[in-house]
Amino acid sequence: MLNSKTITLEQLAKTIDHSLLKPEMTIPEVVAGCELAAECRTASVCAKPCDVATCVGILAGTGVAVGTVVGFPPRSNLAAVKVFEAQKAMADGATELDMVINIGHMRSGQFDEVRQDIGAVVDASRGRAIVKVILENAYLTKDEIRRACQLAEAAGAHFVKTSTGYAPSGATVEDVKLMRASVSDKVQVKAAHGIRTLEALLEIIDAGATRVGATTTKSMLDAFAEGKSIQIRTSSPRRV
Question: Is 142 among the catalytic positions?
Fold first, then answer.
């Protein structure tokens, strides 16, 4: 598990999926986002499905992966539609897929359906892309978060993720700790929505996240490189 007290700049950069998901983003803005990710050597960019091929072309040879989203924001698509989205994204070059669960089914206790929905995307991408399962914690109880994490692991997912960025609230330290405790070491945790400062980034890493969706990537990494003094507050859970 990463630790904010010993992490290097290079390791910190590799926790970040630089987010390029705003629907109004222009192609020049997407290109600039990819160039920034390459400069910062982030783990990936997370792009809109329509921009995957563009991002793949720009980032070839940089070591920055291209990811995209499936069933996003929560559209409650059928599993077959999610599989089609995943297959098209991989055909365009995506190697990471952030898929949204069926939140209504999760809240209804239809756990087999939720697991099968996740499993359909996992099976379609096996050996070609890693799958991060977005729970959208803002709409779930703690028990539902715990159970959703377990369903994602049972379905073969590689990550569980807190949020899309489109719900009323996003990642919290408390939720990340809960998610980390709800899965085995085979599954990693990604946090997203509201992580905009270096303090918040390091705090969420200490809670157990190994990937973070972010838009303020450069300012956070620059602050770390400059050794700006921060104080990590862990006395009580808070939104980041």
Answer: no
